[in-house]
């Protein structure tokens, strides 16, 4: 069942979205060589507690994970990309870190993810990160009334194809609002002009993720973390987006988030990108 949200409900989702953006900015700012993933989890947990927000992850027990999740943020390093279980790992120079966060405030939910490179970034890692950002922006651009769900999926896979990255279609985006995971599924692969017609009030988490050289995944023995099957590095960018009469409204945009940058010199993404 797909529930369309009223403008007032979308405003309430935007409150959650602003806060998710704030936490992800902070996590991006803190992520650095020598920082432990557990410190980042701790920090996010503190911010959520002080805000009186509800973590959508804590105690979540979906079919794709083992038992209830006992963290508030997903942190995935290098070949890990989705549902990364925070654990005792100290970030190293050049690591690719994805942080994915969903919270509810007053019963309305937003979900967003970003990937940063800590320390000295390899050009090929920056290219991968930027490709997921570019795919996300391309998908948002077509998230308009009258377009189809397949237009969003096709926009994502077209950007991946341009860059030569294969696309996995098992895990993608989703409807969102009262809960983190609602209908419809938003595949990262699809055909333009097909599927559900987008209407004002449809709220979607759009989340392209690519691994450099494979569309296959493996499940980590920790029961949660999903990695690229060939060990190649992966990146993930996600926003919660409302489709309105006036076009797409990004509910989780970070303050100083720039549109996709091309040709940016290799360097630290995390600090200035926050
Ligand atoms: N935010 C993830 C998504 O986009 C879901 C993480 S669920 C968790 O769908 F249980 F792993 F936290
Ligand atoms: Co999501």
TrEMBL record:
Cofactors demanded by this protein: Co(2+); Zn(2+); Mn(2+); Fe(2+)
GO BP terms in the entry: proteolysis
Residue spans of biased composition, Basic and acidic residues class: 252-261
Cofactor remark: Binds 2 divalent metal cations per subunit. Has a high-affinity and a low affinity metal-binding site. The true nature of the physiological cofactor is under debate. The enzyme is active with cobalt, zinc, manganese or divalent iron ions. Most likely, methionine aminopeptidases function as mononuclear Fe(2+)-metalloproteases under physiological conditions, and the catalytically relevant metal-binding site has been assigned to the histidine-containing high-affinity site.
Keyword Metal-binding (UniProt): yes
EC number, as in UniProt: 3.4.11.18
Keyword terms of this UniProt record: Aminopeptidase, Hydrolase, Metal-binding, Protease
GO molecular-function terms, A-Z: initiator methionyl aminopeptidase activity; metal ion binding; metalloaminopeptidase activity
Annotated a divalent metal cation 2 binding sites: 111, 174, 207, 238
Residues the record lists as binding a divalent metal cation 1: 100, 111, 238
Region (Disordered): 252-274
Residue ranges of domain Peptidase M24 in the record: 12-245
Top-level enzyme category: hydrolase
Keyword Ribonucleoprotein: no
Gene Ontology cellular component annotations, sorted alphabetically: cytosol
Catalyzed chemical reaction(s): Release of N-terminal amino acids, preferentially methionine, from peptides and arylamides
Subunit note: Monomer.
Function: Removes the N-terminal methionine from nascent proteins. The N-terminal methionine is often cleaved when the second residue in the primary sequence is small and uncharged (Met-Ala-, Cys, Gly, Pro, Ser, Thr, or Val). Requires deformylation of the N(alpha)-formylated initiator methionine before it can be hydrolyzed.
Protein family membership: Belongs to the peptidase M24A family. Methionine aminopeptidase type 1 subfamily.
The protein, known as: Methionine aminopeptidase
Organism in which the protein naturally occurs: Pseudonocardia halophobica
């Amino acid at each position: 069942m797909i529930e369309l949200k009223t403008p007032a409900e979308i405003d309430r989702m935007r409150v959650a979205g602003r806060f998710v953006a704030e936490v992800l900015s902070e996590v991006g700012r803190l992520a650095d060589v020598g920082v432990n993933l557990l410190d980042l989890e701790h920090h996010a947990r503190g911010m959520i507690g002080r805000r009186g927000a509800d973590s959508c992850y804590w105690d979540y027990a979906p079919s794709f994970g083992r038992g209830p999740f006992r963290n508030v943020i997903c942190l995935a390093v290098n070949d890990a990309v989705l549902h990364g279980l925070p654990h005792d790992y100290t970030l190293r120079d050049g690591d690719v870190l994805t942080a994915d966060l969903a919270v509810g405030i007053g019963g309305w939910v937003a979900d967003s993810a970003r990937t940063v490179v800590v320390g000295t970034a390899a050009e090929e890692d920056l290219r991968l990160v930027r490709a997921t950002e570019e795919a996300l922006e391309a998908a948002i651009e077509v998230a308009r009334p009258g377009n189809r769900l397949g237009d969003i999926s096709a926009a994502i896979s077209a950007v991946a194809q341009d860059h030569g990255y294969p696309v996995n279609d098992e895990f993608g985006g989703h409807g969102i609002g009262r809960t983190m995971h609602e209908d419809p599924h938003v595949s990262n692969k699809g055909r333009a002009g097909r599927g559900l017609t987008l209407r004002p009030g449809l709220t979607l988490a759009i989340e392209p993720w690519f691994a450099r050289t494979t569309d296959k995944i493996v499940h980590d023995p920790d029961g949660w973390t999903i990695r690229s099957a060939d060990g190649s590095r992966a990146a993930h960018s996600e926003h919660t987006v409302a489709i309105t009469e006036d076009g797409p409204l990004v509910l989780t945009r970070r303050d100083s988030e720039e549109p996709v940058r091309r040709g940016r010199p290799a360097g630290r993404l995390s600090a200035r990108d926050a």
